[in-house]
Amino acid sequence: MLVYITKKSGSGPPLLLLHGNGETHELFAEITTKLSRHRTVYAIDSRNHGQSTKNVATSYQAMCDDVAAFIAVLQLEDVTILGFSDGAIIGLLLGLAQQPQLKQLLLLGLNLTPADFKPAVRALLQLEYRQTNDPLIQLMLEEPQIELEQLTTMTIPTLIVAGENDVCEPVFFEQVTAVLPNAQLLVLPGETHSSYIEHTDRLYPNLLPYLR
C-alpha cells in the first residue's frame, strides 16, 4: 500500500512528487505549498519508505509499477512527475513505458546505472552497505540498468536537473539530455546532489516555466 498526501490550491493538473532513497514525502514539505499554486500535488512515500508498506521486495521497476497503479486507480490524466534521485529513476521508467497519462517529467539528480556515480560516491555506498547491510543501499549499488540507447524513443517533454557538484559527472547529464528527443538540461551552479532540494528558493523559480 502506498501512502500519500494531497495538497490542492484552486485547480490544476496532477503533479506527483517522488522522493529519493531512504527519504519520505517530507523531503518536499517546503516546496509542496508553492507547487500547489499551480498543480494538484500528490506526494508519495515509496514502498519500504515512510508510511507505505514495509518489508516487501524492492526494485525500481516495482516502485514504478506502484506509481503506475496509483495513477490508474485515481484515474489521473495529464500527469507531471517530479522525481528526485530514486524518484527520478522511477519517473524515467514510467516515461520509458510510454504511460499515456504522462504530460511531462521533471527529473532531478538522475542516474541510469550505478556505474554513472562518481567513483568516490560508489565507494561510500559500498562502505555503507558493508556496515549496515541495508537493502535500500544495495538497491543503489545494483540498479537501475538502463541503457542510454533506450532513451532515444522517449518523446515525453523532460527536464533534467542536476547540481553542479552532483553524484554524477556533468558530462553524464549532458549525454542523457542529448539522447532524449524532447529534453532540456538545467545545471544549478554550486549545488550538490540534494542541496537545491533542501533550499526551495533555488529550485522553485527554475521549475515555474514548466508548471504554468
TrEMBL record:
Name the keywords, alphabetized. Answer: Hydrolase
Molecular functions (GO terms) = hydrolase activity
Q: Which GO terms describe its cellular component?
A: membrane
Q: Which Pfam families match?
A: Abhydrolase_1 (PF00561)
> Would the keyword Nucleotide-binding turn up in this protein's UniProt record?
no
Domain of life of the organism in this record?
A: Bacteria
For this entry, the protein name equals: AB hydrolase-1 domain-containing protein
